[in-house]
Amino acid sequence: MNNTQIKSRIKAITALVWMAITLVVMLAIYMWMIATVTFAQENARHEMAIQHLEMIVRNGIDYISPPIVWGEDEDCIITSGLLQNEVVSGQGRAYSELISLGYFELTFYCPCKICCGIWSEQHPSRIGTGFVQRTASGTIPVQGRTIAVDTNVFPHGTEIYITGFGWRIAEDTGSAINGRIIDIFVECHQEALQLGRIRNVEVFAGG
Fold it and tell me: Which CATH superfamily is domain 54-206 in?
């Protein structure tokens, strides 16, 4: 192999190396852009949920801003959190009467078989049997009231105030609900997915 052939091969290999480097860089940029957009969308969604669920206290009665409609499917119209002027247990207490319990992570679940498994009325084994879906404490779950908790943190029946969501009652449990996690019951699975997971939410007990 003469010098000309060697130089030609070196140039070809160099070109391939640069092409590979360019592809790797382009792929890295593409993945970074996807991650950035995904993070921005997730952050915007959580910010929107928090904004529209923010509690306003008027004359000692708890209200929230009108709900934002996320969308709809065959089964339900999705609204973020409580409906406006929804009556929940414990209203009328002033913020000065509340005792902070610290910060918790919020998740969301619905009565479907995806969220509740065999305990769901929608589970194939329950259909047509007259099964009535209940919480771990024996109550029928209600949006605006029911939450699932770690009973080592909140015994069943405990009433707590969740920033942005108002008063809720610990009625249910879940295998993934351990420690400082509160699972809020909603009626629609799509709403549970849209609300997702919200971290560092302050929770209070009545004074």
Answer: RlpA-like domain (2.40.40.10)
Q: What is the token pair recorded at 64?
A: 């929230």
Q: For residue 85, is pLDDT > 70?
A: no
Cα angle: 97, vertex 98, 104; to 5 degrees:
175
The position carrying tokens 């007990």 is 205
Buried b (16+ CB within 10 A) or exposed e, 158-169: bebbbbbbbbbb
Average pLDDT for 107-111: 95
pTM equals 0.58
Q: Is the pLDDT of residue 93 over 60?
A: no
Please name which of 79, 182, 165, 173 lies closest in space to residue 135, comparing C-alpha atoms.
173
Domain regions of the chain by residue span: 1-52, 54-206
Question: Lowest-pLDDT range, 78-92, 106-120, 140-154?
Answer: 78-92
What does the pLDDT average to over 59-77? 40
Tokens 């610290």 found at: 102
Residues in a beta bridge with 103 = 202
Q: At residue 60, what is the residue type? A: G
| Strand duo 146-148 + 166-172: pairing | parallel
CB 97 within 8 A of CB 207: yes
The two three-digit tokens of residue 67, written as one number: 């709900």
Strand-pair category, 181-185 with 98-109: parallel
Q: What are phi and psi of 115, to 5 degrees?
A: -80, -40
At 72, is the pLDDT very low, low, confident or very high (cuts 50, 70, 90)?
very low
